[in-house]
Amino acid sequence: MTQNIEITQELDVRGLNCPMPLVKSRKAVNALPVGGVLKVVATDRGSVKDFQAWAKTAKNIELVGQEEVQQDGQTLYIHYLKRTS
C-alpha cells in the first residue's frame, strides 16, 4: 500500500522523542505544496499514536499510511502525511 505513495519530501526524526517528531513534522507539512506527501522516519514508538491523533484533529493533513520496519536492529516507524489544504 505505501509502496505506491509518491513522496514529496522526507523528514528524518530518528532519536527524537515526543513531542519533537510532531513539532518538526508540522513545520515540514506547512512548507509542502497542497497535495504533497511528507514521509517521516521516527524511532519513537509513541509517534504511531501521536500521528494518528494529529491526523484526526488537523484540518490540513491526511495520514495516508504508516509502517513499521526493522533496520540495523532498530525499529523505524514511518508515517506518510498528505497536505490537503
Notable characteristics:
alpha+beta, 4-stranded mixed sheet, about 80 residues, 4 strands
SSE topology sketch:
Elements: E1 9-12, H1 20-30, E2 37-42, H2 47-57, E3 61-71, E4 74-83
Parallel strand pairs: 1-2
Antiparallel strand pairs: 2-4, 3-4
Domain UPF0033: 11-35
InterPro entries: TusA-like, TusA-like_sf
Family: Belongs to the sulfur carrier protein TusA family.
Please give the number of β-strands.
4
Q: How many helical stretches?
A: 2
Which class do the helix and strand fractions yield?
alpha+beta
Residue fraction in strands: 35-45%
What is the level 1 CATH name? Alpha Beta
Mean pLDDT: 95
Q: What best-fitting shape do the alpha-carbon axes yield?
A: globular
**Mind telling me the C-alpha Rg?**
12 Å
Order of helices and strands: EHEHEE
Low-confidence stretches: none
Distance between the termini: 23 Å
Query: Order of strands across the biggest sheet?
Result: 1-2-4-3
